Amino acid sequence: MNPKPRCPLAAAFLIGAVVLIASCAANPVTGRQDFMLISESEEVEMGRKVDASVTREYGLYNDARLTAYVADMGRRLGKLSHRPQLEYSVKVLDSPVVNAFAAPGGYLFFTRGILATLNSEAELAGVMGHEIGHVTARHSAQQLSKAQVAQIGLIIPQVLGVPLLSSLAQVGMGLFFMKYSRDNEREADALSVEYATKAGYNASQMAGFFETLQRMNPQSDKSGMPAWFSTHPSPEDREQAIKTQSQQVQRQMGVTRPRIEREAYLRAIDGIVYGQDPREGYVEGGMYYHPAMRIQFPVPADWKVNDTPTAVQMANKEKSAVILFTGAQGKSPEEAARTFVSKTRARVIQSQSARVGGLAAYRLLADVQSGGSTIRTLTYFIQKGNGLYSFTGFSMQKNFPQYENLFENTLGRFAELADARRINVQPDRVRVRRAARADSLGNALRSLGVPENRIKETALLNGGEPEEPVPPNTLLKVVERGR
Questions:
Q1: What is the pLDDT of residue 151?
Q2: What is the C-alpha end-to-end distance of the chain, expressed in Å?
Q3: How confident is the model at residue 222 (pLDDT cuts 50, 70, 90)?
Q4: Long-range CB contact pairs, 114-118, < 8 A, 24+
Q5: Which one of 19, 43, 139, 217 has the minimum C-beta count within 10 Å?
Q6: Residue 368 and residue 374 in contact, taking contact as beta carbons nearer than 8 Å
């Protein structure tokens, strides 16, 4: 039987028709017909997947009171937005980097780093409204739609009757850290002014926060999460535009006494962890310590450490050798080794039972094929209590001999952490204190015990400069040192 071949022109027409039909979607904000391959239900489902992925990768900040406070702001602003029907979900991520971002369908993420940097409910409402604006204007969904067209093969499954969501599920979380366009940013800023003003806040406060961020120039943290301006490029004259729009919208809405609520906000964040939390892992004196897991192991000199809730990765400057510590699957070290071999189709060179730091382990030396190259791996699968861990050093097969001793020295010195001083470390925290009298911000901070070498940093944390005046009884943020 010889079926007649399908006409390429007809196939192209069919694909084009599908794209055309899918693209006829009214933008909830402007009412214009925007290019869109994703329905609202698909947006929400994609948001759920991103929510699970982001939560797993970065972890949630463990403060129910603060989370509820931030989530309440999200719900209130969401109801005042152009898409009030969405169930807005707000998560606080346990990351020191200063960022906030949104996934399609109303999933919003704020790091504890950005919450520590904000200085009022009005600023929180501004940033929250900005992220909601990205959702209501469907900016992320537009990015996803364009990504699908760039990969025309992902449209073909839709032509054949396969749901588009199955293709979208293959899109990595990194897509949601792509830069928005400056036009997207301007629109999100304008929507933020509208939503925050509707809620009764002084939306111009967001401009001051952006000015503070420009002076701070926050970078990504060790987990690799980008900072605010990495994903939210600043349009020209952003701050002035926000201030002008805020005045106009206040007049239009008849808002004569917009709220700032500085003290209420500072009370809400009092005690928030500031910077890296050593309880979730830290490096000191050439050793990595994880107090919660009660483990320790050496870090090779001059190697970079990338620590996330799911893994610790160490790499040399040339990135020609990597050591990875993470969880393993199985009921025993030997079973975990078999699972590794099965999943990677590794060629076993050596394998035997071992002891590491007095703990039961299994040592595996194996080659793994990756992208046409051979990677040599040395792994110790280690049992500690009910936990099973994989500790692997790997490099290209030809380079392995020069790293083998380093790998053995690092992996073989894995041990249980028993030093109470290392276990009972405490993080730095933001504490709210009241300045007794009128003075400059710098002098007020000095009177609260802030050391001279941290005056400028702490002034920025308060959204100001050391020289600017502060009235008496002003609440100020200081950093209480941990460890």
A1: 41
A2: 77
A3: low
A4: 114/228, 115/66, 115/70, 115/269, 115/272, 116/269, 116/272, 116/274, 116/430, 116/461, 116/477, 117/209, 117/212, 117/213, 117/216, 117/218, 117/461, 118/209, 118/265, 118/269
A5: 217
A6: yes
157 vs 33: CA distance, rounded Å: 24
Percent of the chain's residues with pLDDT above 70: 84
pTM recorded for the entire structure: 0.82
Domain boundaries, the chain: 9-267, 301-407, 428-480
pLDDT on residue 258: 97
* Sign of CA pseudo-dihedral 215, 219, 225, 230: positive
Q: Which CATH number fits domain 301-407: 3.40.50.10320, 3.90.550.10, 3.40.50.300, 3.40.1000.10?
A: 3.40.1000.10
Q: Which residue has the higher pLDDT, 178 or 365?
A: 365
Q: What is the mean pLDDT of residues 204-208?
A: 96
Amino acid, single-letter form, for residue 3: P
**Which residue type sits at 266?**
L
pLDDT tens per residue, range 54-106: 998 889 999 999 999 999 999 999 999 999 999 999 999 999 999 999 988 99
